[in-house]
Amino acid sequence: MIVNTVKQAVWGLGILLALAQAGISLGPVLANLGIVGFILGFALQDTLANSAAEMLILIYRPTTSVT
Question: Least C-beta-crowded within 10 Å: which of 23, 25, 47, 66?
Fold first, then answer.
């Protein structure tokens, strides 16, 4: 998962650098990406909170020992 995330980040950075070299202003592009991230963060807030809670339950679940 980490490798895929890094690969996608490198691709995204490469695309932004290619757009800059093509003469496209990156200010509005980055502002739009920030707005989209903000909207997605609010839209997925409950889902992400539930996923985090599930991960914590899996990590700290009580172990039952049968004696």
Answer: 66
Please tell me the predicted confidence (pLDDT) of residue 61: 80
Closest residue by Cα to residue 37 from 12, 2, 20 = 12
Global pTM exceeds 0.90: no
CA distances from 21 to 2, 15, 42, 52, 61 (A): 29, 10, 33, 40, 51
Please, are residues 26 and 20 in contact by the beta-carbon 8 Å criterion? yes
Amino acid making up residue 65: S
